[in-house]
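Final report, Chapter 2: Outcomes

The project's central promise was a pipeline that accepts a single protein chain and returns its three-dimensional structure in a standardized token representation, suitable for archiving and comparison. That pipeline is now operational. To close this chapter, we reproduce one record exactly as it appears in the project archive, with the input sequence first and the structure output second.
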Amino acid sequence: MSKKNIVVLFGGQSSEHEISCISATTIMKNINVDKYTIYPVGITKDGNWKLYKGDIEDIEKGNWEDKSTDAIISPDATVKSLLVFEGSKIKKIGIDVVFPALHGLYGEDGSIQGLLELANIPYVGCGILASSVSMDKLYTKIIVEALGIRQAKFVPVYINEMNNIKDVVAKIEKELEYPVFVKPSNAGSSKGITKAHSRGELFDGLELAIKHDSKLLVEETIEGREIECAILGNHHPRSSSVGEIISAAEFYDYDAKYNDESSRTIIGADLPKDIIKQIKNYSEEIFKAVDGRGLSRVDFFVEKDTNEVVFNEINTLPGFTSISMFPMLWEDKGISIPELVDKLIEFAFQNN
């Protein structure tokens, strides 16, 4: 059987550029090279697309741009090719499938999915709808609200309201009690998120979050354990076991996730069987409600004292780093990372 060509997209213009490079490195190291020829395509922080020609290990070190040549995926569905610019010539490389390892804006918000739909090229992961609504925390809440699944109370804030930030703060204080979380509606890896314990911290949190997005979400604080569940599949998805996040910080922000070694994850969280079953059922229900495909990670709180399950968010392109919950949860179920990557690519062909 002839090998297929797979493009792995990494980097990107979001605040999660570096994490994407690490995820892509893990993915490429675990692709079956007997079945696929890998073409690593990086997107710089400025949005320049490049075909990388060096060692895979250098990608996560950030040393890839100088070993690359300009290249883009053609949106022309009759071409289905990577266009590589070599001096005055353009070389066409046929593409069979794409694995977007792009986190955050322009990577998991439906943007790259739209390009690949135009090009009629199969790709790993959720489609345009699931990607866009799941990336937008506000619209995710609207969908989950319709399912009747409990989530934190919230107040939306729009950029035009920020001209009078005092009115915004007054609106929030009328609906919620401190402490509250202030979040950009579209952001990942907890970028731009703060926990405000007072009016002054709320002002600061709003001003920080608005730098990351034009739409914000202010939520009540749920005191409880942070639990995550992985989803795998297309029309008949299956859920993994559940894992627990033990954060070194007051909440699991970017530094706590990636820079603080005292943060840790527990695979096989110590929870009652009925709560684990509820989390797994909710995860599958939410995945189907957003029209998910391929993979997702669904995050919850188990509230202190009540043990009630509270939905937090769904991530349609979870990390593939050494500390990422998604691959670890499936390894716990007996699916190795090479097997997991292979399954995800096969799901991409089924979606097409």
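Archive annotation: The domain at 4-123 is CATH 3.40.50.20 (Rossmann fold).
This record, like all others produced under the grant, will remain available to the consortium after the project formally closes.
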